[in-house]
């Protein structure tokens, strides 16, 4: 088997929403198709990768560096005669890349890695969650994963009504845990927002996401105001790379914290473990799989934290749509994230998944299951037009 072509395209994910940190008006993502010379049912076997949301597409890096590097590699390096080796592909992609300074390359490598895992699961003839579970020795993995619904972005008009409607939509879709944005309004306004949300969502089932906007004083003010409120977790109060700030907040927060959707490597994860002051008994880790060099690197991060006494249940990958859900189900992680809004293309990727009582059931088709989605053409049409 050899990889005969790799196509990429930038796909618009624009949506009229904002967090405390950014607007999503001009958001994009990368789609990748990895075409092989393996023929199944009369067609070449293709691995598909679709990026996360929030970090834009990686077209330049893919075209100039990572795609040519993989295409020029000897197939014997990544093919053992029966299966593709994602770790070997990862080593090929990272050849001649200096240590440290991860920048945007972690996302470019991550989206190719995603396509490689889709391909590996298809070659094995099983859904990706099953493939990962077998690799991980989790024979009894059920193909289901606890999920939470992410939404509650600030609306330009009628914010409170839009918020309530958004959350009700999540409940109607089978969710029991919800997350809303905070930090872009004054504290008093945000508290009114939180109370409106709590009136819809049950106690202990509402999480708050500040998108890294708080300094220590602001975080303290929010923590004081939230004392006594039944909040599931406070997400990303401070910026991810300020380990000392995270440690100071963790030292004072009674609430669980959920952090680091914006750390993208094993090296950064190790610094977080050493200096971030997080608590294995309550905090959640939200490394974004596809933004962080993909599943190969993610498994290294899992091992790193396991060595420090962290349970898999503390892992709740950021966004990442079907890829993160398969990974969470296959590797026995705590939670996966689902966008409430199906107005955006990103939200539509998981819109068809059966969800009941806060548990999602993963697809049973081989691979990730992109081909079965109603939005397959919107995700990969530009890629396949090459
Ligand atoms: Mg977040």
Report on this structure.
The chain is of the alpha/beta class and 386 residues long. The chain is 38% helix and 17% strand. It has helices at 59-71, 86-93, 105-124, 128-135, 159-172, 187-198, 216-226, 243-252, 266-275, 294-307, 321-331, 345-349, 376-384; strands at 3-12, 28-40, 43-50, 144-150, 178-181, 206-209, 231-235, 257-259, 284-285, 336-339, 355-356, 359-361. The strands form 2 sheets. Strands 4, 5, 6, 7, 8, 9, 10, 11 and 12 form a 9-stranded mixed β-sheet that branches. Helix 7 (216-226) packs parallel to helix 8. The longest helix has 20 residues, at 105-124. It is globular, with a radius of gyration of 20 Å. It binds magnesium ion. Magnesium ion binds next to loops.
Short description, anyone?
The chain has 13 helices and 12 strands. It has helices spanning 59-71, 86-93, 105-124, 128-135, 159-172, 187-198, 216-226, 243-252, 266-275, 294-307, 321-331, 345-349, 376-384; strands at 3-12, 28-40, 43-50, 144-150, 178-181, 206-209, 231-235, 257-259, 284-285, 336-339, 355-356, 359-361.
């Amino acid at each position: 088997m050899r990889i005969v072509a790799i196509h990429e395209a930038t796909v618009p994910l624009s949506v009229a929403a904002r967090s405390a940190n950014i607007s999503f008006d001009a958001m994009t993502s990368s789609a990748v198709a990895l075409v092989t010379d393996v023929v199944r049912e009369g067609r070449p076997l293709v691995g598909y990768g679709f990026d996360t949301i929030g970090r834009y597409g990686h077209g330049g890096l893919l075209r100039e560096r990572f795609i040519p590097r993989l295409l020029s590699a000897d197939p014997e390096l990544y093919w053992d005669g029966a299966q593709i080796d994602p770790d070997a592909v990862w080593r090929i992609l990272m050849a001649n890349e200096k240590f440290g300074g991860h920048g945007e390359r972690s996302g470019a490598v991550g989206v190719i890695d995603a396509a490689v895992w889709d391909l590996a699961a298809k070659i094995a003839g099983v859904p990706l969650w099953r493939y990962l579970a077998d690799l991980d020795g989790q024979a009894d993995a059920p193909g289901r994963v606890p999920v939470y619904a992410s939404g509650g972005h600030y609306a330009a008009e009628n914010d409170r009504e839009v918020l309530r409607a958004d959350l009700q939509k999540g409940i109607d879709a089978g969710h029991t845990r919800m997350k809303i944005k905070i930090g872009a309004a004054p504290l008093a306004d945000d508290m009114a927002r939180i109370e409106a949300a709590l009136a819809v969502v049950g106690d202990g089932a509402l999480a708050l996401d500040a998108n890294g906007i708080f300094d220590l004083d602001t975080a303290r003010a929010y923590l004081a105001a939230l004392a006594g409120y039944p909040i599931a977790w406070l997400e990303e109060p401070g910026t991810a790379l300020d380990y000392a700030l995270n440690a100071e907040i963790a030292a004072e927060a009674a609430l669980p914290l959920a952090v680091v959707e914006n750390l993208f490597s094993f090296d950064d994860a190790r610094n977080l473990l050493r200096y971030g002051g997080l608590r294995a008994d309550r905090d959640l880790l939200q490394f974004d799989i596809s933004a962080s060099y993909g599943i190969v690197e993610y498994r290294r991060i899992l091992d790193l934290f396991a060595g420090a006494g962290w349970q898999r249940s503390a892992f709740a990958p950021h966004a990442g749509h079907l890829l993160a859900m398969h990974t969470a189900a296959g590797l026995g992680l705590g939670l996966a994230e689902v966008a409430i809004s199906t107005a955006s293309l990103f939200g539509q990727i998981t819109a068809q998944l059966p969800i009941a009582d806060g548990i999602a059931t993963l697809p049973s088709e081989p691979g990730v299951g992109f081909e079965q989605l109603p939005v397959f053409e919107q995700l990969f049409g530009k890629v396949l037009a090459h």
